[in-house]
Design a protein that fits this description.
- With 940 residues, this protein is mostly helical.
- Among the domains are: 196 residues, Rossmann fold (3-Layer(aba) Sandwich); 55 residues, no CATH class; 241 residues, Alpha Horseshoe (Serine Threonine Protein Phosphatase 5, Tetratricopeptide repeat); 66 residues, Arc Repressor Mutant, subunit A (Orthogonal Bundle).
- It is 64% helix and 4% strand.
- A five-stranded parallel β-sheet has the order 2-3-4-1-5, sandwiched between helices. Strands 6-7 form a two-stranded antiparallel sheet. Strands 8-9 form a two-stranded antiparallel sheet.
- α24 packs parallel to α26, α34 packs antiparallel against α35 and α36 packs across α37.
């Protein structure tokens, strides 16, 4: 085992570093950091103090210390004096015990204090006490001692566990903390619980680690790492508490580290965190401990139910008050919760076996056996551990299984695992473990689900393979998922489950971009016998048939099955069926229906606690909002999708959402946000370089290229997304990106590529009734037509007419921008300005800065010429060149500066060579240069 690094505390470290920078400039301050035990408060203080040890260079003063330099010159090296102490429960009755340790490094400075202050300080720190009349003088003496030290160095005070300080030390340190403003000193306190440990100073609550930071911490602690599912299960168990994670990891046996033995269900007995909770529990009265145990034994226990159990055990419910006062439990209405997740486990584990059994028996007898059938069965099973006769065990196992299927959720997974342990028949036990894995997956616990599947030994045939393939699709390798799902469909004797396996296999094909295999899926789905009375199964079959027809290029043949799938989807209630119907609506370009069905899928998933389907439904919602031009709403859906996918362990889905956020950022012109999202979406290694996140990322970069005039780069990126002729790659992402490919390639040598790709988009858009897609198609026809021709203008005007019937303002403004640019090239300035002004207003309202800048540049297309013979140079040239040239002149100048001839420029921009010659003469005059060499230097 290794010493863990500080993980997931960047924000807190930056906050403290900011306080230290302010203190270096003479503006001191204090901060209280709150958090549950084990969240790393002490570790944070240790890391901060380690970097600021006495004598270590950490910065330089800047001379601005509220009008004085404290005797130091600007630029002098500033060292740090670190003062540390901590609250200790055993010293809480010793006045000034904590303060004595805190002041030890500067105790020699007492001699320099005024005699009266020195005397009262010496007496108190030596155990002589401090009369009430001298408390102000004493506190002032402590402040003076610290401020004198701050004259010579930066003072960093670290006070851990401030809630355990002796009252006298707490009062003195609080007095100092509230008066550090003019001094080069910072005090950082940590505390647990909700009571104010140091009133009057800034407070920050430190939360648990996220999953990524938890995994990093686990890798730090365990050399060589743990198997993925074992690591994920420990992260789930620790619930973001770093100390719990460290304690759990250090307690693992070699077999557990290899993933060959069951993992611990709670904190080990020697755990530092468990000892901390044991200390708190030991201070509570016995009746309080009993009520806490009842609450810990059932995480869904309400206050009303606890009152009933307390009455049945002849315990006053008022005995719970000490636990509330110390922050172990919180009561809000009828809800009773443990604010600190590990406190529940510690409370249960610190009770004896007899106490736990008595608590389970009591709860089993007081809960309503009809309304809470599963909970009653679980308590009966927990109370009967190790003492059940075979007949009783079989009866209880059957009851657990029946109640679990009736209830569902994460509790059902635990109940089915326990039922499997009580089941004598291995086949039945395996089936119950598979069912438990399914409930664990649906409730957002994929690691637990995979461990239950392994425990089942692959029982239940195709059902286990279907579940394993679905989990692999969302969080693993789609190629492996595809094989598992195809095998599951072949081995499945139930046609409905076989069709579901094929639909999931279709998702794997879509994610990996191997669309040519979709017709094979359709043939397999058609060969299955029809299933009467199962509309959801028929919906999936129709969806597969429609998507397969699209993959073969038969748009007309795809429409009918997709429409029938949507009709069935409107009648569905299951979240998966609703999500697939939403996807079918998107393929039909019916964005409003797709959005409505996605919302229903989200509501249904949350109602039935099917966490596994939430990311899929949110993805459909985001795509619908994208096509509607509601980019902010789509970004919110993607952000919600990232969080939901991460929480349920669906890494592939999370990366897809991140990549879609990159596309949305590119459309708004936010290049930094776009590249950050791409980095996050593509950071995981993958053998598949054309999966959906990478394809969306390429599209996002292509949008940026188009926005900044890097047209050849845009063409190359989009061409790399897919090959529509062969169906390999992310064909549907390629179709969505086609309008940008047409815009980038229409005027250059890649025009033929654009024409071929646009034919696919055009067939799809024409076959739908959606005015937005048809308007975009008309715009692409205009761009591909001969520049300046009546055909081009007719297509532009048809596009604008269709846009008026659609709901996508952004795409309408893009058409106006491109049409206005075309009109300006034809010297029809007044008509062009009308289009450009409307486009500019829309882009500014939508926050699409990059496109607004393009529209603004076109509108300012008549700059004053500069005097010949006054060449520009250096940064001034770079800053003013685009303001002195028209947009087209800037484009021509960049190409010439890169080495293109006038003829090559003319061919690329579909202009005559004479026109380019004319522009070049004007460029030389306006920039005050005489040669192409000077132009190249200007743009270098």
């Amino acid at each position: 085992m290794q010493k863990p690094a500080l993980r997931g505390r960047t924000a807190e470290r930056n906050l403290i570093d900011g306080l230290l920078r302010e203190a270096t400039a003479g503006r001191g301050g204090a901060l209280l950091i709150r958090g549950e035990p084990g969240t790393g408060k002490s570790t944070l203080l240790t890391h901060i103090a380690a970097g600021r040890t006495a004598g270590r260079t950490n910065g330089r003063t800047n001379g601005r210390t509220n009008g004085r330099t404290n005797g130091r010159t600007a630029g002098a090296v500033l060292h740090t004096v670190v003062l540390r102490t901590a609250g200790v429960a055993e010293e809480a009755a010793l006045p000034y015990a904590a303060l004595q340790r805190f002041l030890q490094p500067v105790r020699a400075g007492v001699a320099a204090l005024p005699p009266a202050q020195a005397a009262v300080l010496d007496r108190a720190l030596s155990g002589g006490g401090c009369p009430a009349a001298d408390r102000l003088r004493f506190s002032a003496a402590v402040l003076r001692l610290i401020s004198d030290a701050a004259e010579r160095a930066l003072v960093l005070g670290c006070v851990d566990d401030a809630h355990l300080l002796d009252p006298a030390s707490a009062d003195a340190l609080g007095f100092v903390a509230r008066r550090l403003g003019p001094h080069r000193a910072v005090l950082v306190f940590t505390a647990s619980g909700d009571r104010p440990a140091v009133p009057g100073i800034a407070c920050r609550r430190i939360s648990g680690l996220d999953r990524a930071a938890s995994r990093q911490l686990l890798d730090d602690v365990v050399p060589g790492g743990l198997p993925t599912d074992a690591a994920g299960a420990l992260v789930d168990l620790a619930r973001g508490n770093p100390q719990a994670l460290v304690d759990l990891a250090r307690s693992l046996t070699p077999a557990q580290r290899r993933g060959e033995a069951p993992l611990p269900a709670g904190l080990p007995a020697g755990s530092a965190l468990r000892r901390a909770y044991r200390t708190r529990l030991d201070r509570l009265p016995a009746p309080t401990r009993w009520l806490l145990l009842l609450a810990a034994a059932d995480d869904r226990l309400g206050v009303t139910e606890l009152v009933a159990a307390a009455r049945a055990s002849h315990t006053d419910i008022g005995s719970l008050a000490p636990a509330e006062l110390c922050g172990l439990v919180r009561v809000r209405g009828d809800r009773l919760t443990f604010p600190q997740p590990m406190a529940r486990a510690a409370t249960y584990d610190e009770s004896s076996l007899g106490q736990r059994r008595a608590a389970h028996l009591l709860l089993a007898s007081t809960l309503d056996p009809v309304r809470h059938r599963l909970r009653v069965a679980v308590h009966r099973a927990a109370a009967g551990t190790g003492g059940l006769e075979p007949a009783k065990a079989s009866e209880l196992a059957d009851e657990l299984a029946a109640a679990a299927h009736e209830s569902g959720g994460a509790a059902a997974a635990d109940a089915l695992e326990r039922a499997a342990e009580l089941t004598a028949d291995p086949a039945v036990a395996a089936a119950r473990l598979v069912d438990g894995a399914r409930y664990a997956w649906l409730s957002g616990h994929p690691h637990r689900a995979r461990m239950l599947l392994r425990k089942s030994g692959g029982g239940a045939g195709g059902v286990a393979e279907l579940l394993a393939g679905e989990m692999e699709l969302r969080a693993g390798a789609p190629a492996t998922a595809l094989r598992s799902l195809l095998d599951a469909s072949a081995r499945q004797s139930v046609p409905g489950l076989a069709v579901r396996a094929l639909a999931r296999a279709g998702d794997a094909i879509c994610f990996s971009g191997d669309y040519m295999r979709f017709p094979m899926l359709a043939r397999r789905a058609e060969s299955l016998p029809p299933v009467d009375g199962q509309p959801d199964t028929e919906l999936l079959r129709l969806y597969i048939a429609g998507l397969a027809a699209l993959c073969r290029g038969s748009v007309d043949r795809a429409l009918e099955p997709l429409r029938r799938a949507v009709i069935l989807g409107r009648q569905a209630s299951e979240p998966g069926a609703l999500a697939w119907a939403s996807a079918a609506s998107l393929l039909l370009a019916d964005d409003a229906t797709a959005h409505h069905l996605a919302l229903r899928a989200i509501d249904a998933a949350r109602t039935c606690e099917d966490v596994s389907m939430l990311p899929r439904a949110l993805e459909m919602k985001a795509y619908a909002e994208f096509w509607q031009g509601r980019f902010d709403a789509a970004d919110v859906s993607c952000l919600d999708g990232v969080r939901t996918a991460e929480a349920s362990g669906q890494d592939n889905c999370a990366d897809t959402f991140r990549a879609m956020r990159a596309v949305l950022a590119a459309l708004r012109g936010n290049e930094d946000a776009c590249r950050r999202s791409i980095a996050a979406a593509t950071q995981r290694p993958s053998a598949d370089q054309v999966n959906r996140p990478r394809a969306l990322s390429r599209w996002a970069l292509a949008i940026l290229d188009v926005a900044h005039g890097r047209l050849p780069e845009a063409v190359s990126r989009i061409e790399g997304i897919a090959d529509p002729a062969t169906g390999r790659g992310q064909v549907f992402v390629h179709v969505m990106a086609t309008p940008y490919l047409v815009e980038a390639a229409a005027a250059g040598t890649a025009r033929r590529t654009a024409v071929g790709s646009f034919a696919v988009f055009d067939r799809w858009a024409t076959a739908t009734d959606d005015p937005v897609r048809r308007a975009i198609a008309a715009r692409c026809h205009a761009l591909l037509a001969r520049r300046g021709s009546e055909e081009a203008e007719e297509h532009f005007r048809e596009s604008l007419r269709l846009h008026r019937s659609g709901a996508n303002e952004f795409e309408a403004a893009r058409t106006q921008l491109l049409f206005g640019r075309e009109l300006r090239r034809l010297r029809r300035g007044r008509c062009a300005d009308d289009q450009l002004r409307e486009a500019l207003a829309t882009f500014e309202r939508l926050g699409s800065t990059v496109w607004a800048a393009q529209a603004r540049a076109e509108l300012h297309d008549a700059p004053e010429p500069v005097t010949a013979g006054a060449p520009l140079s250096g940064s001034a040239a770079a800053a003013t060149v685009t303001g002195r040239l028209t947009a087209q002149q800037v484009q021509i100048a960049r190409m010439v500066a890169a080495g293109a001839s006038n003829r090559e420029v003319a061919e690329h921009l579909s202009l005559s060579t004479r026109t380019v010659d004319h522009h070049m003469r004007n460029i030389f005059v306006r920039l005050g240069i005489r040669s192409r060499i000077e132009l190249a230097k200007l743009f270098s």
